Amino acid sequence: MAINVYREARTQLQTIRDLLRFAVSCFNEAGLFFGHGSASAYDEAAYLILHTLHLPLDRLEPFLDARLATAELEQVLGVIERRVSEKIPAAYLTNEAWLGNLSFFVDERVIVPRSFIAELLREQLAPWIENPGAIRSALDLCTGSGCLAILLAYAFPNATIDAADISPGALEVAQRNVADYNLEHQVNLIQSDLFAELGGRTYDLIISNPPYVSAEAMAALPEEYRHEPENALASGVDGLEAMRTILNEAAGHLTHRGVLIVEIGHNRESLERAYPEVPFTWLETSAGDEFVFLLQRDQLP
């Protein structure tokens, strides 16, 4: 969109309603991709406007006809313009991402949280974990921002949580989030390339949302994904590079009745073809039963 459109907007737009309409038009015209927390141009416009103005994110209607101060208008239009011109995911513009009713600090050192495992943790992995109080140790492998490790701590309060990631930058973000939730006593951050630095540690539960995007899919990703760390997305030619290591080594890091839960994106068919002898249990999520699998320790290859 031409720069003069934003210049004109600074003189013509007055209310949040005006800005909302303008942002939706800009987002639609630019063909933005919404896969990092918002479902549509309207949802993302509303979120960015409310966040920028420090208003409640669930209360748009009462403020629609509020007129903005000049400085406020400049701030909101600046965010809208950056979203359009740079294709930056909204979460990086606000340094905030949500999983359920919990918010997390994020920046471009980590991918924007969007794991189906978060849904399952809200139910304490029922019915697969019969007694949540009996879980004494858990691992979040490829923790990124630390969001799933924090959800693990809430779901299993008796457990000591290890959160591992290969990226020092990601662990810095995770440390901030762990501190924000006052969980330093329960969540331990470890720099590790998958299991490489975990020695003889064993866990009652291992969860992982590892890299799983194939080379072909990486080449076709919308521009918004180019702002995310490539090593948190890409996993070899077929998307299973990290998965092979996890499946081959997980048994050595699980207790006798330990459970492994992994998210694999759209790779169910490829995974089952690569491991036809493994009895994967596919867990139901809001998007279906093709994205997260469960294995008991004695089912691992």
Can you describe what's shown?
The protein is an alpha/beta fold and 301 residues long. The protein has 2 domains: 3-94, Helicase, Ruva Protein, domain 3 (Orthogonal Bundle); 103-299, Rossmann fold (3-Layer(aba) Sandwich), CATH 3.40.50. Helices cover 36% and strands 15% of the residues. Strand 1 and strand 2 (102-104) form a beta hairpin. Helix 2 packs parallel to helix 4 (70-86). The protein starts with a helix and ends in a 5-residue tail after the last strand.
Write down the secondary-structure element order. Answer: HHHHHEEHEHEHEEHHEHEE
CATH superfamily membership of the largest domain, which one? Answer: Vaccinia Virus protein VP39
CATH class of the largest domain: Alpha Beta
**Largest beta-sheet details:** 7 strands, mixed
Helix fraction, binned, reads 25-40%
Q: What class, by secondary structure content?
A: alpha/beta
Describe the strand arrangement of the main beta sheet, using strand numbers.
Answer: 5-4-3-6-7-9-8
What does the overall shape look like? elongated
List unreliable stretches of 5+ residues: none
Number of strands: 9
Number of helices: 11
At the fold tier of CATH, the topology name of the largest domain is Rossmann fold
